[in-house]
Amino acid sequence: MTPMLTVDERIDSFTRGTRSWPHPDTFRATPSSLAEAGFYWKPFSSSPDNVVCFLCGKSLDGWTEDDDPFEEHLSHSRNCCWAIVKSIYPVEDGLPFHWDDEENLPRGERMTKARLQTFGKWWPHERTKGWFGTTKRMANAGFIYAPTDDSDDNVQCPYCETALDGWEIEDDPVHEHQRRRPNCPFFATRAAAPTKASAAKAAKQKRKPQDVNGEESESDSNLTTHSTGRTKPETKKSAKSSRSQKSAASESASSRSSNATASQ
Ligand SMILES: [Zn+2]
Ligand SMILES: [Zn+2]
């Protein structure tokens, strides 16, 4: 496997050797959040807080307390698929969810392509004859590739954080995703970017999520749903919602002036 492909490996990079991550837990850039955002630690004597993205290779250092690893990643590496899929969240909660920009819609071309790119050449079932859950179908169903130390076919929805592994030949990723989390923002998305007023109104109405394939929920699968290992979902969730608030206040990752330095 490619080095640092799993979140666990990236977290471990922060505890190797005698040195430790130089910033306190009050920073948004913790080993956990950095690993989730795709980074592993690669310190230099001149740059003790340097981190590197496992996918695009971007190096970032000079972290300050308020720097958000997800936002910094995207602002310094606009085309990294990991930065893209991990940075885009609804600006309004409630059904249907709202995005600030049409290109950020979960089922739009840009996001679908980015999810597909996370699978790279690593999906273990891609060449199995007759296998339904190809990388393309996984990406179209909202999943990114998120292998763990124990599971090379683990996928994750970046919106509801559902993680699934143990795929079998006939498993349909849309069905497996939707029957577990019918209210996931991936399914319950408005087709166009709303105005603030219409967003607030629609959020009040609480419309039902769309039924994308008309299938009924069943419990006929051996797939395993599980948490994403050693990450801290509660920490991440709060980071997410504060990112959403920032977006709502028209302060997107792209326009935000950054304190982290691109050293590549
Ligand atoms: Zn990257
Ligand atoms: Zn989901």
TrEMBL record:
<dbReference type="InterPro" id="IPR001370">
    <property type="entry name" value="BIR_rpt"/>
</dbReference>
<protein>
    <submittedName>
        <fullName>Inhibitor of apoptosis repeat-containing protein</fullName>
    </submittedName>
</protein>
<dbReference type="Pfam" id="PF00653">
    <property type="entry name" value="BIR"/>
</dbReference>
<dbReference type="GO" id="GO:0046872">
    <property type="term" value="F:metal ion binding"/>
</dbReference>
<dbReference type="InterPro" id="IPR051190">
    <property type="entry name" value="Baculoviral_IAP"/>
</dbReference>
<keyword id="KW-0479">Metal-binding</keyword>
<keyword id="KW-0862">Zinc</keyword>
<feature type="compositionally biased region" description="Low complexity">
    <location>
        <begin position="191"/>
        <end position="202"/>
    </location>
</feature>
<feature type="compositionally biased region" description="Polar residues">
    <location>
        <begin position="220"/>
        <end position="230"/>
    </location>
</feature>
<feature type="compositionally biased region" description="Low complexity">
    <location>
        <begin position="241"/>
        <end position="264"/>
    </location>
</feature>
<feature type="region of interest" description="Disordered">
    <location>
        <begin position="191"/>
        <end position="264"/>
    </location>
</feature>
